[in-house]
Amino acid sequence: MDYPTIADCVGNTPLVRLQRLQGETSNTILLKLEGNNPAGSVKDRPALSMIQHAEARGRIKPGDTLIEATSGNTGIALAMAAAIKGYRMVLIMPESATDERKAAMAAYGAELILVTAEEGMEGARDLALKMQAEGRGLVLDQFANHDNPRAHFEGTGPEIWRQTNGDITHFVSSMGTTGTIMGCGRYLKQQNPAVQIIGLRPTEGSSIPGIRRWPTAYLPSIFAAEEVDRTLDISQREAEEMTRKLARVEGIFCGVSSGGAVAGALRVSAEVENATIVAIICDRGDRYLSSGLFGNWFGN
């Protein structure tokens, strides 16, 4: 028997129905549980895609050093993929990332370089490119690498279309690197141009892991604004409150960007009827426990 490897377990995640938070409505709100991927997030898909396609093009080979700037989930996923494939993985991230994220990356054997919270992801991205220029490794660059949205065009989008029997009317996704919304959006629009693609970004001053409001100079080059039908601003408070509600009312334990996506889906639901709305649950809540999001159980 040809048994699967851990890489074969990426994708084909469940799509579940929201039961109580939506209230009385003619709409169906569905959540794609990407935390069920082996390394725990939607980023497992592009991480594996970027490495596999780079190998196929002959850009990298096992034993090479890979470098990536990350706020967390992509780093964990790349650390897993590098362990599967036999690469040295160097990850650069803001020191403000939760301890769970740092520990998970280290557990997979990745080397961590921390930049200050003030330097943030922009500083991490700059340092990654500087290290590449110095010959210290290859940057996969999730922000400009078209194998990122490709993973969702070939995987996540078709899964959603199949799981909804083509009934999806609205797709809601947080926007960070924007790979998920670009890849899924393109696939869903090819199947039915009437499907509405809705992106989430944080309000000014909000800090939501996985959702970014990029300065123009750092806007991911894989992003095409014209392919997003509508953009909603989500506050940190709204996203965090919805994240806690999802755990306590629906039994769905997820991260803050997922809470933001569901808050956005509920806003859309309040405006339409007889719709099938799909939101992406990007990751699991266990990598946010030390942040105090679900209560101050640590260090007491």
UniProtKB/TrEMBL annotation:
SUPFAM superfamilies, alphabetized: Tryptophan synthase beta subunit-like PLP-dependent enzymes
Pfam families named among the record's database cross-references: PALP
PROSITE patterns named in the record: CYS_SYNTHASE
Keywords, in A-Z order: Amino-acid biosynthesis, Coiled coil, Cysteine biosynthesis, Pyridoxal phosphate, Transferase
Coiled-coil intervals: 225-252
EC number: 2.5.1.47
Any one GO molecular function term: cysteine synthase activity
Domain annotation Tryptophan synthase beta chain-like PALP: ranges: 7-283
Binding site for pyridoxal 5'-phosphate: 73, 176-180, 257
Signal peptide (UniProt feature, chain positions): none
Sites bearing N6-(pyridoxal phosphate)lysine, chain numbering: 43
Cofactor: pyridoxal 5'-phosphate
Superkingdom, natural source: Bacteria
Keyword Transferase: yes
GO BP, one annotated term: cysteine biosynthetic process from serine
Reactions listed under catalytic activity: O-acetyl-L-serine + hydrogen sulfide = L-cysteine + acetate
Pathway field: Amino-acid biosynthesis; L-cysteine biosynthesis; L-cysteine from L-serine: step 2/2
InterPro entries: Cys_synth, Cys_Synth/Cystath_Beta-Synth, CysM, P-phosphate_BS, TrpB-like_PALP, TrpB-like_PALP_sf
Similarity annotation: Belongs to the cysteine synthase/cystathionine beta-synthase family.
Protein name: Cysteine synthase
